[in-house]
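User: Design a sequence. Structure:
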């Protein structure tokens, strides 16, 4: 069995979301954020979690002391740093000593492997750089750390001076490095080059190799795969592809590709069911919108819109799905739109537990209604709450929980430039009329607060309902301020959430439609759950 075949069996996963990922524009992790993310990565059974660069900032120093209390069950913590600085002894180099003080299981040392960077960036000789690589690794190995070398700019360096790039790897091997990671730091190397160079280096040294691709040419995932195919045993990347400039290799795509498509094994294989959950959790912590179209973990990764597609899916899901979504913790979605067919309606109804077989023309009628509503600007793809109410109205299962008798919204601006909004509302429930008023930061919040206040007497559970997202889209902008708007609202109660939609030329009316659907949906589902025999 060849060396490459032996190395193909198990691939080590090294996550750098907490360092490389934190360099994403708009992302700033607190210490608490970093600890929470590390726990999620441990749940996914990522082998190495790079916590940061000790000495670069106080937060990273604290991370390495706090993470020791986190009781991680699988992941090893890695600290990132550079080779010893020239003209300093190992004891005098405070950055190197802080790496030691981090007590991380693994130390990852970044070093120059491109002669251009050695002479022009570090301003030292090529031999001096090799001595720093050897000396730093040997020093850390003497202190019983596992040591990885990140060969920075390796692929660009290899193209410019292959002999020197190879010497940097050989010197790390000589010093006892446990692994050398070939970095495509500028992210411009193409996949066929990654394969060729990695294969060449692997046949020239005995130290295990890793691959660390960036995405500046849009091929970081492919480069990670090609590095593994060539014989690398470790891949370094981030969750959701976060990283500086165009980002890093996205582990949420690479991991299932390795496990499900390419026949490799990782320790995370048995934890793939958590992949979508971890991806979305880290998006929330990063305060970044989750990519709905992301492969495997996106909300629309297994969403089907065309009627022909859905009809085929009912017979066999393999017709339009490359993997079972549940394997990666995701779910199948059937979207409802003007492109939908009767199969979409039937599929969605079945998914919601609604039987439509009593009236064979009902799906056709619902589809006709949906297409007319979408022509007005309604959109049900992100408003499954409104869609379910639409179906249940058509089947006669749904009766409104309250009747609006009227509302008024007043917005005022005083002489001190302060804005105030007040909404008064009158609703009727079972013959009882409730008339209330409430304030809000804006007219929609005032209306929402007033409606909730009016209904809480009858339905106390409304206190647990929270509005989690509110979006407004102008539909026909050429009409200017007279344009129709579509309002999409996301509401949640405990661990459940649902979307509703409203459309009108009046933004208050559109918001009202979506708000009422959201409350009615919650009350209907709660009543359904409490129905005897259900």
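Assistant: Done.
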């Amino acid at each position: 069995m060849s060396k490459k075949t032996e190395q193909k069996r198990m691939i080590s996963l090294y996550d750098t979301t907490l360092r490389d990922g934190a360099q994403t524009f708009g992302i700033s992790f607190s210490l608490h954020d970093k600890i929470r993310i590390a726990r999620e990565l441990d749940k996914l059974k990522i082998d190495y979690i790079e916590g940061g660069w000790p000495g670069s900032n106080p937060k990273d120093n604290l991370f390495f002391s706090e993470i020791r209390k986190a009781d991680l069950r699988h992941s090893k913590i890695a600290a990132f740093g550079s080779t010893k600085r020239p003209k300093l002894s190992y004891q005098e180099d405070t950055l190197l000593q802080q790496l030691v003080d981090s007590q991380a299981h693994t130390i990852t040392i970044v070093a120059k492997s491109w002669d251009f960077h050695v002479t022009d960036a570090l301003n030292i000789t090529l031999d001096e750089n090799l001595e720093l690589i050897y000396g730093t690794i040997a020093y850390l190995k003497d202190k019983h750390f596992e040591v990885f070398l990140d060969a920075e700019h390796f692929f660009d360096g290899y193209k410019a001076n292959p002999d020197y790039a190879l010497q940097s790897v050989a010197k790390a091997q000589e010093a006892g490095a446990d692994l050398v990671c070939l970095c495509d730091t500028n992210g411009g190397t193409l996949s066929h080059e990654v394969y060729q160079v990695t294969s060449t280096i692997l046949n020239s040294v005995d130290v295990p190799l890793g691959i660390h691709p960036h995405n500046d040419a849009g091929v970081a995932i492919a480069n990670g795969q090609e590095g593994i195919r060539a014989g690398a045993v470790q891949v370094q990347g981030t969750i959701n592809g976060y990283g500086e400039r165009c980002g890093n290799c996205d582990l949420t795509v690479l991991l299932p590709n390795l496990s499900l498509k390419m026949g490799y094994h990782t320790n995370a294989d048995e934890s793939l069911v958590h992949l979508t959950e971890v991806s979305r959790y880290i998006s929330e912590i990063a305060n970044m919108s989750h990519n709905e179209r992301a492969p495997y973990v996106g909300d629309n990764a297994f969403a089907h819109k065309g009627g022909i597609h859905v009809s085929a899916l009912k017979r066999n899901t393999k017709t339009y799905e490359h993997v079972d979504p549940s394997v990666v913790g995701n779910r199948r979605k059937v979207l409802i739109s003007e492109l939908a067919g009767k199969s979409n309606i039937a599929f969605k109804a079945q998914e919601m537990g609604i039987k439509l077989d009593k009236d064979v023309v009902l799906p056709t009628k619902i589809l006709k209604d949906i297409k007319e509503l979408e022509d007005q600007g309604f959109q049900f793809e992100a408003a499954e709450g409104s869609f379910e109410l639409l179906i249940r109205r058509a089947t006669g299962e749904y009766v409104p929980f309250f009747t609006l008798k009227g509302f008024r919204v007043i917005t005022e601006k005083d002489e001190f430039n302060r804005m105030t909004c007040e909404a008064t509302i009158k609703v009727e429930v079972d013959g009882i009329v409730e008339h209330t008023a409430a304030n809000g930061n804006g007219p929609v919040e005032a209306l929402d607060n007033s409606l909730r206040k009016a209904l809480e007497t009858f339905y106390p559970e409304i206190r647990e309902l929270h509005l989690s997202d509110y979006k407004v889209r102008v539909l026909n902008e050429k009409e200017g301020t007279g344009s129709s708007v579509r309002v999409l609202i996301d509401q949640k109660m405990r661990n459940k959430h649902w979307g509703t939609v409203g459309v009108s030329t009046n933004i208050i009316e559109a918001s009202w439609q979506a708000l009422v659907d959201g409350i009615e949906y919650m009350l209907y589902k709660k009543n359904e759950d409490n129905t005897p025999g259900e």
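DSSP finds 18 helices and 16 strands in the chain. Residues 1-7 have pLDDT under 50 and may be disordered.
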